[in-house]
Known about the structure:
0% strand
Amino acid sequence: HVFLAIHVAAIFAGIIVDQLVVDHQPTGVETLRFANNLESSVLRIFARWDAAHYLNIAHSGYQADYQYAFFPGFPFLLSMFKPFGLLGSIALGLLANALCHWGAVLSLKRIIKHALPNVNEELIQSLALLNPAFLFFTTLYSESLFSFLSWTGLALVVVDGNLLGCLFLGAASLTRSNG
């Protein structure tokens, strides 16, 4: 499927660019420790900034007050991969995010087709893949899960008239504060 291929290409492009560009060395930010240099050089791009917080919360729980800025929905999803270690959590988290992004776009298509029946479906998918926030959907950030839960909830309520969508919307509120 083209959608998944674009996600995989973005992940590999990110790894390659990360190898070619000298990293900024921030101070006072959350980081992760990898088992060896190979893991670190390949996976560090997916374990920086907010992703490091999500992974640390998923593996160790909330241990500092500042971590409560990160809502529990996405760390909960990542915690399901904890038995596979840090490497498995990153790989399976990336896959889960790709699937959530795909599901979100399918739900968005349903909402838009309901409101604008004559719109081109390929245009909707293309805009979802070309949007500037796309890179946030390909790493370990909560955008994919939040979009999936929000847009699926809206599709269920607005398109289908199914109040089950309220459960999806409630779950979305556990993922991000803005929504």
